[in-house]
Design goal:
The chain has 617 residues and is of the alpha+beta class. 43% of the residues lie in helices and 13% in strands. The N and C termini lie far apart (122 Å).
Length: 617
């Protein structure tokens, strides 16, 4: 009799006659029993109760499936990979992963699906229907499971616990994903670059990097991507649906998630969670190689790439390789010269929104990050971290060629260009080449003569903001950096580094023509002009030319008769700061320079040099 009933049900389905209608929502059903079960969704009745955890269900079939979560019984086994399942339907769905068969096709966009339920959910993306509404915040969803997931953000319920680290999760799927961090299992492999992933979804997202497909479009600004679009004409596209959602939030500028500690507001709850770690200082993720700890798992993954040196992603234009997809996307913008993010205050444009956010801090003068040691404040947390290395004296990055160590990986990368002799950045005006993009930008200002940065004290203008910052120290007289050998103090860290070379006698920069050695690369460059005979800097008054711009500036004082530097003791004035410094030693009677042969002391280094010639005769 059961078999005959099943046959009758099967025969009714193809005819698609739905004779039973719901009086509340007018939805129609093939069978009366299905209508009865549906009516329970309106009445909110849940007559079936679990005896173990007292959870209630509308249908008896639902409670049967739920009971299997307590018994842990999995009767259905896959004959290919021997994975076991509690339900026969789950096994059938799983079998499709082996066959790659996708029998269900969307009539709108022809996308195919393995399971009919996935197709139904997909159809809602075309109809824009969102029938499920949250009773707390009235947010709407196209799927009931998404609503259930959302409701947990209000209840804060996390019933699923990890047996290894006792971390709790709202969903069993999140717990399963988390367990892979303990097992280190990565079953999903990319056929193109052999990179492995713990989740199939991450593999699918990764594959889009190779195919250049960006199927998700923002309705607000037309940032889009699909197989039907012309990629050469379409400028803005997204690989992941989540990126579209984040882009839409940039348009709405709604910040609904406030921090209870500092009242800062955030667009997304995830950003608020990450921000809260700055207050708690909790770092649960540890690197197994160097034992460094991180607040976020993503930061640990990024850090691990510094140990593996793995760079699987390649730029098709210049063949430069990257470890992360985000870095490759940012790099591609440097090729396209596209800068979609514009500052409303000064109309400066940026290729990446994070750079725009950092730039905005220069307008509001906000510096939320403070050093606990010297109370210096910074606009970005990264800058504070870099600054703290000055106090800790930590230099974790080492050059494999000369064993020199650096506080930042960027400084190491810049240093490596000294060994490779690579200068990838070229000035279009004079063809001069530079190792760093920043150096090229500063050089370009010498052609434009534009000086945008003004000192509020003396109104002197500068083309580069760093030069203005250095200049401001002449007004504040603040000198935070102290030499441990002679206790001399300096306003800038780089001045201290240069000074330390006097004590170490180290001269790492050598002239290839005459083998003369120098403590600083700048001095070597100045010296090289002696060999090349190049004099690029011309005086506008007498047309005399100079090889170094500082010599031109000193020469200009001959015409202006200006002596800006004055001695505070005897009021004598000098054209150059160096002359004033030498003069001040006559008042202090200090003689810091000592002859190693006869121990005679001198107040000026040049006097010591002349004295040494008397021993060499």
């Amino acid at each position: 009799m059961f078999l005959i009933g099943g046959l009758l049900k099967h025969m009714v389905t193809p005819s698609i006659k739905k004779l039973h209608r719901c009086d509340v929502c007018e939805k129609t059903f093939v069978q009366r029993g299905t209508l009865k079960r549906h009516m329970l969704t309106h009445t909110k009745k849940k007559p079936h109760r679990c005896n173990v955890c007292e959870k209630r269900f509308t249908a008896s079939g639902d409670i049967k499936r739920h009971m299997l979560t307590h018994t842990k019984e999995k009767l259905h086994r896959c004959y290919i990979c021997e994975k076991r399942f509690t339900r026969c339907g789950s096994l059938k769905t799983h079998m499709l992963t082996h066959t790659e068969e996708k029998p269900h096709r969307c009539v709108v966009c022809e996308k195919r699906f393995k399971v009919i339920s996935s197709l139904k959910r997909h159809m809602l993306t075309h109809t824009k229907m969102k029938p499920y509404r949250c009773v707390v915040c009235e947010k709407r969803f196209n799927d009931s499971s998404n609503l259930k997931t959302h409701m947990l953000t209000h209840t804060k319920e996390k019933p699923h616990r990890c047996v290894v680290c006792e971390k709790n999760f709202s969903f069993i799927s999140n717990l399963k994903t988390h367990m892979l961090t303990h097992t280190k299992e990565k079953p999903h492999r990319c056929d193109t670059c052999d990179k492995r992933f713990s989740q199939s979804g991450n593999l699918k997202t990764h594959m889009l990097i190779h195919t250049n497909m960006k199927p998700h479009r923002c309705d607000t600004c037309d940032k889009m991507g699909s197989q039907d679009f012309n990629f050469e004409q379409s400028d803005h596209m997204f690989i992941e649906r989540g990126n579209v959602k984040r882009n839409k939030l940039n348009h709405s500028i709604q910040k609904l998630h406030p921090c209870d500690v500092c009242e800062k507001t955030f667009v997304r709850s995830g950003n608020l969670k990450r921000h809260m770690l700055t207050h708690t200082n909790e770092k649960t993720h540890r690197c197994d190689v160097c034992e460094k700890r991180f607040a976020r798992g993503g930061d640990l993954k990024t850090h691990m790439l510094t140990h593996t040196k793995e760079k699987t992603l390649r730029c098709d234009v210049c063949e430069k390789r990257f470890a992360r997809g985000g870095d490759l996307e940012t790099h591609m913008l440097t090729r396209t010269k596209e800068k979609p993010h514009r500052c409303d205050a000064c109309e400066k444009s940026f290729s990446v929104i994070s750079n725009l956010k950092s730039h905005m801090l220069t307008h509001n003068k906000e510096k939320p990050y403070q050093s606990d040691v010297c109370n210096k404040r910074f606009t970005q947390s990264g800058n504070l971290k870099t600054h703290m290395l000055i106090h800790t004296k930590m230099k974790p990055h080492r050059c494999d060629t000369c064993d020199k160590r650096f506080t930042q990986i960027g400084n190491l990368n810049t240093h490596m260009l000294i060994h490779t002799k690579m200068k990838p950045h070229r000035c279009d005006t004079c063809d001069k080449r530079f190792t760093q993009r920043g150096s090229l930008k500063r050089h370009l200002l010498t052609h434009t003569k534009e000086k945008l940065y003004r000192c509020d004290v003396c109104e002197k203008t500068f083309s580069v903001i760093l030069n203005l910052k250095s200049h401001m120290l002449t007004h504040t007289k603040e000198k935070l950096y102290r030499c441990d050998v002679c206790e001399k103090r300096f306003a800038r860290g780089r001045d201290l580094k240069t000074h330390m070379l006097i004590h170490s006698k180290e001269k790492p920069h050598r002239c290839d023509v005459c083998d003369k050695r120098f403590t600083q690369s700048g001095n070597l460059k100045t010296h090289m002009l002696i060999h090349t005979k190049k004099k690029l800097h011309r005086c506008d008054v007498c047309e005399k030319t100079f090889s170094v711009i500082s010599n031109l500036k000193t020469h200009m004082i001959v015409h202006t008769k200006e002596k800006p530097d004055q001695c505070g003791t005897c009021d004598k004035r000098f054209t150059q700061r160096g002359s004033l410094k030498r003069h001040l030693l006559t008042h202090t009677k200090r003689k810091p320079h000592r002859c190693d042969v006869c121990e005679k002391r001198f107040n000026i280094f040049s006097s010591l040099k002349r004295h040494l010639l008397t021993h060499n005769k």
